[in-house]
Design goal:
heterotrimer; A alpha+beta (about 375); B mainly alpha (about 280); C mainly alpha (about 300); A: about 375 residues; Rossmann fold; six-stranded mixed β-sheet; 9 helices; 21 strands; C: about 300 residues; mainly alpha; MetI-like fold; two-stranded antiparallel ribbon; disordered N terminus; binds adenosine-5'-triphosphate; binds magnesium ion
Chain lengths: ~375, ~280, ~300
């Protein structure tokens, strides 16, 4: 059990500045997910924590002790790799016991812990097999088993599920979550899949170009993104970003599109805006905030009606993603399954603007 | 699918190819057959005109003579020299290859220099080596030959093993480092088992190279550690029964190679093409 | 829990300072022995030889004064040396293409699957792995004018006794050497080309077959370009071996008759170990090295160009 603190961590690969000053503190028992686009430095940061890479600057603290000068094996961590990293020449049993043997754990203890781990992961019947005789999901379980028998202070995962097919990935994801509830060890988990990040994390750390863009609880990042990048990265389908001119006067605010038309912002949002009377913004509306306008009754506060043509519809069964035009650009609306059935159909929509995100296109920062 | 069901044309082509294969095999194996057969002939049969293609009976007196005269010591010498030198070359070469593959020690230049060592023609160095060996009293001893064969096999081992080691997923080693091994243990407990097949194949080839060497052995041996190819040439133009000895000795000197290479058949192509063709 | 924590404690495996140093220096420590041996046995003699080549040491004289390029100038007047280079060139120029051709034909014969192919290939490899001295000795027995089967077979077809002294008669020594050489190394080419041919993209061949392209067209347009790199490597390896050919000739003709089949390696050997022309031998060695380096770089250049 241990907390993890990074301060001012930098890492260069030759000319590539892969990690650019990361400050991060993860509490004991927390499940932190490092997420971000490919090449943003997630793996590098994780490997630096593991001691597989030496940071060029900054300090790393695990359980209160600075570990910069410690070897990976001296940090008492366990790591699960993307390609499982199972030893093909050892049985499952020996693979799981590998770390314990390396640490000269007594044989009785090894047998007990391997047994426990195998049971916890439901691979008790596979112990005598070799990795090549296992399916992808089973291999991943073995890899996780090898980590948990170690009873390490800190678990590191580098995209452990990315080699699995979609269904297996869902299954393993819940299993990892359950595992964390059971053993409550601090975990740092790298993924580029935002669904994994949202579902697993106590805290999401969103990286971009080697820096932390924003960190916090999953819903906090989702609902109060600090930048357009965060808003765009989390959520599926992605948030719609529509260029517009924001016109404020007094307590009223309105986003006017170049191609004509406008959206009136709710007073609560308008109150957040100050200063400039007229400025360029990106209006961010999540697909989930669209709905089919029903009945013609009065709309809730902050909800506006909008009529559009369904250019493209993609039913998923429960939901139907519908592409429409707002302000001259394509936007995706997530509607109920039967809300729209035909391409080219004219539909009346309600847009909930209470949670609209306004972004300054120049700085990328969220202004309201 | 049964052969009998093949379309007539395909069957005919296959028959022609088998015929061709048979002829090729015959051409290439006949000399080997001839060698073996002579080794079992009596002197009368060997010096029979016209030559006999099949001996009356299989008899081993030609081999018996080699054992009685102690000529088989040459085989023993070859075994010792080739065996020990391959062993050393394999160990040192694999370690070196690991460093080149994983840490890029010395960069591309070192790797190129090492492989260029293999291009150096033996004849160009055998003479200075001879002079140096004379100076240090290394001629006609095991140590001198073993050192030499080790050196001449090292570039090959390093080159081949580097190829095999690069193919080992780095994750395996990193996982072991996290799990509690130090780097030396990682080489021994992770890398070594992973490259074991390649290692075996490479050992076989280093053994074969050392075993087959003639020039160095010719120059650097006298009486004590004569190796088998040198012993063989001693029979040339020799006394009465030299054919029998040549044949029997050749067979003895070929058997170990034959066994080793048959076992390693799978790696043959990669081994003899210096890894240029992944077989 | 407390038990396991103490078992896992990081302190458990913290090595001594010396252990740490060993681990940190590992990349260099494990390179060192191999490099040391290579320097000692590979490079040191070369340097020694280079120095000697500028001196005038012979069997009788131990004159270590430097004579500049005298020995190298001598190379140009040495007709026997140039003759030996000529012999080497002849053998290489004939044997190499022949090996390639025979190897290629063999590979064509075996490329399509046929039951038992594995065994055939295993058998065919035998000549390549046996010692060249054994190969030479074998062919000596084969070629023998009275007791060898070749004369017998030729006589059978000619209908009259054919008596050819293969390893002595000037007209036949080169064919004899080349037959032996090709017998031993065509299987090497075969093995490499077979591997290369089986890697040729099958779908391309099928597409060509559907288009009705002729065999020769397919060969030129698809097969040869695909296996060209392997051919280049195979020729480089074999070419370098042929230029330094020694064993087979030693076993077969010992350079004779006279010095008719004396290759540059044999000549160097003779200069060094019969004439004891120490310095001059060193100069010859460097000529050979220069030659091989030249060939290698030229071939590698060409390979890079075609890539
Ligand atoms: N060994 C290395 N040598 C040089 N550059 C590297 C090395 N490893 C990573 N990089 C670079 O560092 C940056 C960060 O890489 P990193 O592997 O941490 O990305 P990542 O966020 O894990 O991406 P992914 O999601 O694709 O795994 C990238 O630009 C990458 O090209
Ligand atoms: Mg990564």
């Amino acid at each position: 059990m241990a907390d993890v603190k990074l301060s001012g961590v930098h890492k260069y690969y030759g000319n590539v500045h892969a990690v650019r000053g990361v400050d991060l503190s993860i509490a004991d028992g927390e499940f932190a997910v490092l997420v971000g686009p490919s090449g943003c430095g997630k793996s590098t940061l994780l490997r630096t924590i593991a001691g597989l890479e030496d940071p060029d600057d900054g300090t790393i603290t695990i359980g209160g002790a600075v570990v910069n000068d410690l070897r990976p094996r001296e940090r008492n961590i366990a790591m699960v790799f993307q390609n499982y990293a199972l030893y093909p020449y050892l049985t499952v049993n020996e693979n799981i016991a590998f770390g314990l043997r390396a640490r000269k754990t007594p044989e009785i203890e090894i047998r007990k812990r391997v047994g426990e781990a195998a049971e916890m992961l439901g691979i008790g019947n596979l112990l005598q097999r070799y990795p090549r005789q296992l399916s992808g999901g089973q291999r991943q379980r073995v890899a996780i088993g090898r980590a948990i028998v170690r009873k390490a202070d800190l678990f590191l995962f580098d995209e452990p599920l990315s080699n699995l097919d979609a269904q297996l990935r869902d299954e393993m994801r819940s299993e990892i979550k359950r595992l964390h509830h059971e053993i409550t060890t601090t975990m740092i988990y790298v993924t580029h899949d935002q669904v994994e990040a949202m579902t697993l994390a106590d805290r999401i750390v969103l990286l971009r170009d080697g820096k932390i863009e924003q960190q916090g609880a999953p819903l906090e990042l989702f609902e109060q993104p600090r930048t357009g990048f965060v808003a765009g990265f989390l959520g599926s389908p992605s948030i719609n970003l529509i260029p517009a001119t924001l016109k404020t006067s007094g307590t009223a605010a309105e986003a006017v599109f170049k191609s004509g038309g406008s959206l009136t912002l709710p007073p609560a949002k308008a109150a957040l805006l100050s200063g400039a009377e007229e400025r360029q913004v990106l209006v961010g509306i999540r697909p989930q905030h669209f709905s089919r306008a029903g009945g013609g009754g009065p709309l809730r506060e902050g909800v506006v009606s909008y009529s559009a043509t369904a250019d493209l519809i993609q039913p998923t069964g429960t939901r139907t993603f519908t592409t429409i035009k707002i302000g001259g650009v394509d936007a995706v609306a997530e509607l109920q399954a039967h809300d729209v059935t035909n391409h080219g159909e004219r539909i009346e929509l309600a847009i909930d603007l209470n949670r609209v995100v306004l972004i300054d296109p120049a700085s990328g920062l969220v202004i309201a | 699918m049964r052969i009998g069901r093949l379309p007539a044309k395909k069957a005919r082509i296959l028959a022609v190819r088998y015929l061709g294969a048979g002829i090729v095999i015959l051409l290439f194996l006949f000399p080997v057959y001839w060698l073996f057969m002579i080794s079992f002939k009596t002197p009368d049969e060997i010096y029979h005109v016209p030559p006999l293609w099949i001996p009356e009976q299989i008899q081993f007196s030609n081999y018996y003579v080699l054992f009685k005269d102690g000529d088989v010591l040459a085989i023993l010498n070859s075994l010792i020299v080739a065996g020990v030198s391959s062993g050393i070359a394999i160990v040192l070469g694999t370690l070196c290859a690991y460093s080149l593959a994983r840490y890029g020690t010395g960069g591309e230049n070192l790797a190129m220099w090492i492989i260029s060592q293999r291009m150096i023609p033996p004849i160009a160095v055998v003479f200075p080596i001879f002079l140096i060996y004379v100076h240090f009293g290394l001629v006609d001893g095991y140590f001198g030959l073993i050192l030499l064969y080790t050196a001449f096999n090292l570039p090959y081992v390093i080159w081949m093993m580097r190829g095999y080691i690069v193919d080992v997923p780095l994750e395996l080693e990193e996982s072991a480092l996290v799990d509690g091994l130090n780097r030396w243990e990682v080489i021994w407990k992770v890398v070594f088992p992973m490259v074991r097949p390649g290692l075996m194949a490479t050992s076989v080839f280093t053994f074969v190279f050392a075993w087959n060497d003639f020039l160095f052995a010719l120059v650097l041996t006298r009486t004590e550690v004569i190796t088998f190819p040198v012993m063989l040439t001693h029979y040339f133009g020799g006394q009465s029964n030299f054919w029998a000895k040549i044949a029997a000795m050749s067979v003895l000197g070929t058997l170990p190679i034959f066994v080793a290479v048959s076992v390693m058949q799978r790696y043959l192509v990669r081994g003899i093409s210096l890894g240029a063709v992944k077989g | 829990m407390t038990v396991s924590v103490s078992l896992n404690g990081a302190e458990q495996r913290r090595p001594s300072r010396f252990g740490r140093m060993l681990e940190d220096r590992l990349p260099y420590l494990i390179v060192a022995p191999a490099i040391l041996i290579l320097l000692l046995v590979g490079l040191f003699p070369l340097i020694y030889s280079l120095i000697v080549s500028f001196q005038r040491i012979t069997m009788t004289e131990n004159d270590t004064s430097f004579v500049g390029l005298l020995n190298y100038a001598e190379l140009f007047r040495d007709t026997r040396l140039w003759a030996s280079l000529g012999h080497t060139a002849i053998i290489t120029a004939i044997a190499l293409p022949l090996e390639l051709l025979v190897g290629f034909l063999m590979a064509q014969l075996f490329i399509d699957g046929m039951p038992g192919r594995q065994i055939f290939v295993a058998l065919l490899v035998l000549p390549t792995v046996i010692s060249p001295i054994v190969a030479g000795a074998t062919w000596r027995l084969m070629f023998d004018v009275r007791f060898g089967p070749i004369g017998q077979i030729l006589s059978f077809f000619a209908g009259e006794p054919v008596r050819i002294l293969w390893t002595v008669n000037p007209a036949y020594v080169y064919p004899a050497i080349i037959i032996c050489e090709v017998w031993q190394w065509a299987p090497f080419m075969f093995l490499l080309l077979l591997a290369a041919l089986s890697n040729v993209d099958q779908s391309q061949l099928e597409a060509a077959e559907i288009d009705g392209a002729s065999y020769l067209r397919v060969l030129r347009a698809i097969v040869l370009p695909a296996i060209a790199p392997v051919i280049a490597v195979a020729c480089l390896i074999r070419g370098l071996d042929l230029v330094r050919i020694f064993d087979i000739i030693w076993a077969l003709t010992e350079g004779g008759p006279g010095s008719m089949t004396e290759t540059v390696s044999l000549y160097t050997y003779v200069q060094g170990f019969s004439q004891f022309e120490t310095s001059y031998t060193a100069a010859i060695s460097f000529l050979v090295i220069a030659l091989l380096t030249l060939i290698t770089t030229l071939v590698l250049k060409r390979m890079e160009l075609t890539r």
